[in-house]
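Help wanted!
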Amino acid sequence: MLPHADDAITRDGKALILAYDHGLEHGPVDFEPNPDTADPEAVWDLATHDAVSAFAVQKGIAEAYYPSYSDDVSLLAKLNGTSNMWMGEPDSAVNWSAEYAADLGADAIGFTLYGGSNYEVEMAEEFREAQETAREHDMGVVMWSYPRGQGMKNDTAADTIAYAARQGLELGADIAKVKYPGSGEAMAQACEMAAPTKVVMSGGSKTDDAAFLSTVESAISNGAAGLAVGRNVFQRENPIEILDALEAVIYDGKTAKEAIELTGDAALADD
Amino acid sequence: MLPHADDAITRDGKALILAYDHGLEHGPVDFEPNPDTADPEAVWDLATHDAVSAFAVQKGIAEAYYPSYSDDVSLLAKLNGTSNMWMGEPDSAVNWSAEYAADLGADAIGFTLYGGSNYEVEMAEEFREAQETAREHDMGVVMWSYPRGQGMKNDTAADTIAYAARQGLELGADIAKVKYPGSGEAMAQACEMAAPTKVVMSGGSKTDDAAFLSTVESAISNGAAGLAVGRNVFQRENPIEILDALEAVIYDGKTAKEAIELTGDAALADD
Amino acid sequence: MLPHADDAITRDGKALILAYDHGLEHGPVDFEPNPDTADPEAVWDLATHDAVSAFAVQKGIAEAYYPSYSDDVSLLAKLNGTSNMWMGEPDSAVNWSAEYAADLGADAIGFTLYGGSNYEVEMAEEFREAQETAREHDMGVVMWSYPRGQGMKNDTAADTIAYAARQGLELGADIAKVKYPGSGEAMAQACEMAAPTKVVMSGGSKTDDAAFLSTVESAISNGAAGLAVGRNVFQRENPIEILDALEAVIYDGKTAKEAIELTGDAALADD
Amino acid sequence: MLPHADDAITRDGKALILAYDHGLEHGPVDFEPNPDTADPEAVWDLATHDAVSAFAVQKGIAEAYYPSYSDDVSLLAKLNGTSNMWMGEPDSAVNWSAEYAADLGADAIGFTLYGGSNYEVEMAEEFREAQETAREHDMGVVMWSYPRGQGMKNDTAADTIAYAARQGLELGADIAKVKYPGSGEAMAQACEMAAPTKVVMSGGSKTDDAAFLSTVESAISNGAAGLAVGRNVFQRENPIEILDALEAVIYDGKTAKEAIELTGDAALADD
Amino acid sequence: MLPHADDAITRDGKALILAYDHGLEHGPVDFEPNPDTADPEAVWDLATHDAVSAFAVQKGIAEAYYPSYSDDVSLLAKLNGTSNMWMGEPDSAVNWSAEYAADLGADAIGFTLYGGSNYEVEMAEEFREAQETAREHDMGVVMWSYPRGQGMKNDTAADTIAYAARQGLELGADIAKVKYPGSGEAMAQACEMAAPTKVVMSGGSKTDDAAFLSTVESAISNGAAGLAVGRNVFQRENPIEILDALEAVIYDGKTAKEAIELTGDAALADD
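Answered by r_m:
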């Protein structure tokens, strides 16, 4: 964790990371609710929204589009990832070297660690190499810290998420992305364990607007620096409005209710 | 996926990749229908046909013949491959480094990924290294994206092929070679998922002319950029004519029927 | 083992290593007795105590705080470590390269070896690389020499600890950190086996003051160069006082009883 | 396969490779028929025979003797090999780097590939590295192409040998060494599959002179470029005479019978 | 095997290697017969005896003491080794890089190969790298050639030891250290198989003086170049006298009986 290393992917110390690696991790099924989003251009356009402090994609999608969006989007190079056809213990291929990400102009790298998996040690060592290379190139480091596999019974238990956040700090992440541990109190514990490492909550599968914004509000008010979100934005019919609302909650300290009112979108309120 | 990286192995954005690595992948049995094709020279000669935008071979066959054909053939260096004596989970040895392919003058690299295999993670990481080296040397990147192994029940299901095409995009291929998913609609879905990455249909085992051309027509009219073909050309008695016909379908937008008529070959029509 | 290589992390040839990698190795549970210690800053402040000859932390915690403490704290870069979510044979990921530790200004590296684990050979080879890199950068080398795993029945048996200490010497550690083998005689044996390699006793889980100091006294009087301690300092309500007392025992040759009297802390005596 | 890369180890395009790595592969037992041959010098002397176009040895035997024979012997550095104490799936340790072979002055490298073994993929990748390094140093490349292991039922079946020969071509060998597939016709098929890659027949265990020469004649007349032989030369009492006879068959196109007559050795005829 | 590469660790072509890596390989138990020998200094002093042509130690013991003994002792850097807590198939961690050994001023490297172990291939490849690096730095190469593991029924059978000695030659060792195969005849066979590679007999566990010297005499008179010995020297009460006697047997061609008489040590004769 290096102070200010994440400046290029945060805004006033807060973060809204738009993630779009679902085509690799989950496959085409994630584009079904909103078929246009299979086209990366549609989501790159969303990423230009002021609320988005960084856009997380795999290498191929960065190669193809980032040169056209480099003035408007901060690139978070998601270095590892694996299809869900993979049937072994949780693991993630390193699909992108940190050097090449730097060459492409990435502002930060993203890396998944499956704590508790039978590949935890190997993934931690791959993270080491990526993290240290990121430092050479002044890129920030975001860890997707997701305990999973083998004997992991409850991967969103408060203790597990707190441990995951702490792994982010100890191993050298500037930002740790963790699942929402079910309560504001548990999120506060995770943030406390991460200490100077910022914690962002993972958006998860799509929920209704009010519930989603309310969870984000809870996370923010309990110390989270923001949100990393994919489906809860691009699977909606109103992605711009939800980004407006998230901007209000994350950067302006509004409540979910205020944000819905401010964005003046009946659809959001009634969804 | 890098725009224009595949220019040297496409023609007006379309591709007909002649593949000739069957001696390694399947063994001598593939030359039995047309014994002369065991001699690489015979197939290199076919590769000079105007319809062929790239010729995919393993290292040894490139070393021996490419210097004599470099003016007339675009070389697609198929970097990995394994004999069918291999009895483990689907895997493919990296037989050729991307650096050496560049030294030999290759225009692009080809690489197989078996999504869903117990070797998927390892192969994806080998692909990473090859892909990034290809970028250093301005070579295009073609992925043979073939889900296979373990629990993969149907490797030509529409969802599987769409996922395979998307893997090509996400991991950084300029062209994804996938099996024909059984219908034009399914091929359209795959092309949509690949977005800017071009999709070429794999020729597969030999079928009759009309059926084969009709499948190619279906693929092209549903968004495929072309075809990667081996046995359906070199196992025929009339390889030149089928290349003529494929040229008409792929580059000139002719129907299968028109192509057969245009090439004026009774043999093709009646095969 | 290189004479004087540990000068920067010892004081008159004695050592009190304050270790603070529990957030990775054990998780948040270790901060529960004293919740403020989840904040690394609180423990970095403890590390400025004169008694502390080196502070052992993982990479992320060094990156974030060491620049502010480099005048007052000697940095012992704990290179490997793993969460206790890991369920395989004892192993430890190399989370930090020795080069990067040197770049950050570390005075020494720390490395765990699980002798007897199914990963012993692999860990020893990782240690080799770290140790030799440490030599290039004039950093000292501390081995956490912890036989563990498979058929290891008693990991604090006198013979086991003596063997562990010897491994430290043979493989090139300047200091070997071992568990207390249950008696002063056994500790003497371990020190004899380590010969010029210094032996420090591992603090272990928290015990009461008198018992703890008495064990330290026994270790010191039987040849140990000092102590590596975490929980027995930072989980206490009186960490400063226990550091004062440890200073008396380790550097001044006081008995546990004298140390308690000297530090004039009733709480210590009565704990 | 690179035209002319094997010039230094062939004579008029033909090859007689004397192999002497039996001390590693089979152990001392292979020297029992002719105990003097345990002394490498005795076999180096045989290698100076005009019939021998290359001498294949492991590193230690090259280091010790090649400097004294470099004017008279072409060195074929057999890079991998394993003792028969090894009880795992067929595998072969890389005992010699291609760089070091080049430093010693080797004219070519030799490398075993066990197609079908559970180590096929790993061995093919080790071959890649050796082959490409050989190209950097203008050394020829000979593959000992030996399908073996797991489900391989008949490792001298015609189809298997033809496949083995083809692997040599596809992977970049200039010469493929294969077992005799039992008939001239089958050997012709293997040579056809290897196309420009030369095929040499493996000598195998010792047989009587007439039978041995007759098999060699059959191989040569069916397209083989020559022979790689060890025991059938050095286990004989008359190694010079058999080399004379082999020279007649391989380079001068004599029949086995003519060769026996030409060499005028009653022992050969009556053996 | 490179002629003269072992000059620095032999004397007139003969060798008495004093080995002292027992603290790693066997643990403290080996020092019990003579507790002072746990202190490396005591054994370094023995290594200055004129009879000792090389002293074999692990890295840590070389780092700590060699600078003080470099004028009087030839350093044989034992690169690999493992504790006997290891319970897997025989394997040995590479604890010391050959480069670092060269930097420390080593005259030669020592390396264990467990032929027949499930790690044989891996160890042979590690040996390759060490051996070739030794050549770059003009260091000699000694192989501890110890068939062991899996199906190895008798690791001192004559055939096994002969094979082990041959492995030393083939793989590039200047000296092969093997166990005594039970008879002078068997030792002669091993020496014949090693050809120019020198064979030294391994001292093994401590036996009485006359028996021990008699075995050494048998080895020497059957072609061995000498002895590698540890416990049979340092576990004795009279290590100087036994070294005197060994000097007579190894370098001066005395019989065991003559040596005992020459050294004039009643203790030796009556032991």
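OP: Thanks! One thing I noticed: The radius of gyration of chain E is 17 Å.
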